[in-house]
Amino acid sequence: MAKAVDALDAFDVSYETTPMGTTIEADEIGELFAAAQAAHEAVDGDRVSTFLKIDDKRTSDADAASKVAAVESELGREAQKER
């Protein structure tokens, strides 16, 4: 996984890695595809699975961080809890 995440630095994308995956944001769909392909190819192994889900809301410029901020604003606290 570290090699996949490291490969993203060569592209004009922002990203956040979580325990369940990496969210990648780009202004251009081609840049997103190129970054995802590079991340996929960076992983060593005889089998690599990459799942790509695209959320393209064309009527809004909101980014992933603003979506989390909206949830936290509604909660009145951070949207995470450690055990």
UniProtKB/TrEMBL annotation:
Domain Thiamine-binding protein, residue spans: 2-72
Protein origin, superkingdom: Archaea
Native source species: Halolamina salifodinae
Entry-linked Pfam families: Thiamine_BP
Cellular component, GO annotation: cytosol
Annotated InterPro entries: MTH1187/YkoF-like, Thiamine_BP, UPF0045_domain
UniProt-listed Gene3D superfamilies: 3.30.70.930
Family: Belongs to the UPF0045 family.
This protein's name: Uncharacterized protein (TIGR00106 family)
